[in-house]
Fold:
Amino acid sequence: MPKMLTCAHTFCYECLEGKISNKFFVECPECKRETFVGDVGVDTLSDNKAILEYLEDLKKNPPKTVATCGNCNEKPVAIFCPECNTEICEQCSNQVHGLPMFKSHNPTSDLKPKTENNCKEHNEKLVMLLAR
Structure:
């Protein structure tokens, strides 16, 4: 549950529980400002409804991103070459891997698994929101 501090930074409930200092305040992991939580603790903090709505919307409508070729930056990725450590489109793969110096390469249609940016403590995907 995303909880908002008085400094306007938002963190998950579990992360803030571990940041309670001298029993009545929680220190913001980002700016170090303290927010009064009293003897009730993190439960007194408001839920960040904007982030909750955003996360719910992401669950219902996941973004449809298409990776583009690491060579031409135009066409969708179709091939992964472990030797080049690059995801490329079929046309670029045919052009590049057709050259004699790349004969030992083994391009495959099994795309390299992407690693996601997850919270190290909770193994949940991090969400970054930017304000103007």
